Amino acid sequence: MTAREVTLGHIEAAARELAGVAQHTPVDHASHLSDLLGVPTYMKLENLQRTGSFKLRGATYRLSRLTDEEKSRGVVAASAGNHAQGVAFAAQQLGIDATIFMPLGAPVPKLLATKSYGASVITDGATVEECLALAAEHSQRTGAVMIHPFDHADVIAGQGTIGLEILRDVPDVQTVLVPVGGGGLISGIAVATKEIAAQQGREIRVVGVQASASASLPASLAAGHPVTIDRGATIADGIAVARPGDHTFPLVRDLVDDIVTVEEDDLARAVLTLLERTKLVVEPAGAIGVAAILAGLVAPTGPTVTVLSGGNIDPLLLQRIVSHGLVAAGRYMTLRIPLPDRPGQLAEVSRILAAVGANVIEVLHTRHDLGLTLNDVVLQVAVETRGPNHQAEVMQTLTSAGFSPEVVGV
Fold this sequence. Notes:
Low-confidence stretches: none
Radius of gyration: 24 Å
Order of helices and strands: HEHEHHEHEHEHEHEHEHHEHHEHEHEEHE
Largest sheet: 6 strands, mixed
């Protein structure tokens, strides 16, 4: 079966195969996002899927269709984490030996989880692309079956089962927002939703969302074929793919209505918003549809579903994202304020900050700053604020009082 043969029938067959293995994850109404868009907005909670990601679906269906002879040779895969866990879990369930290549910088929780499912994990290569090359070489050398993370018809069909569930739970959905890396997830969802909508005599918009630092689809669509980009650094490691798949690209080109890209600050703000507003832990790649909504990149057309594709996030990264997200949302800022070295200046700044309702978190008062004269000091103060307007009020009040505050660390 080739990717061109991926149809609603194949996705329905995948759903039957996955019954009892992959969970039918919940769809939750998101009041905050609904208010922002002005239409009912829902979240498809694949972060609550077994192994913490949608990747279990495609991996399980792909492995289930191997012949007995292929299963006896074992499988090999390459992934930054979510596909690795999906393949390892599926292999364990089916009694297949699995070898997984993961980048040297792979998140520790994903690495440990993959090992816990019984796979042999090899950490080598700086990027997923390098790991894919290593996995392909391993496949050629040993005969193990290569399980590509997105560019295979069975994988696409498995991921497409999410589209079936979305239409079952939100039958009047008009727009679906989908994270995009190599294109397997959005291809499957687009096939399922578009075919069902056509049978119903209506249309559903499918919008892909990529991180600006790793957006291979805009360049590929402009060129008319898959192209490899120079990837920048992004916290959305789950979709940091330099090139769309040969099989997924034509499906995206023909079925996806739009591709939008978001910045790193938007991603951090989305993770923070989901933590605060919905009490959900979602990795940056999984939160990218929410990031697009928060950034005003989504045109409301009617009931909207955003796919939260995964929740596997390193706690240390989460800590950094929360801090960065607070800054991006105008909830935290650090000020550098030069002061004359005389009594009462620190007290006056503290009084002003208290008067405007800025909560002081940390204070550094030093005479050892470059450029200071013997009669000057610098006050560096970190404060909690209530948003950009409140931050502007803090700055204006300090300036009106004769101080010269500068925002640092933003």
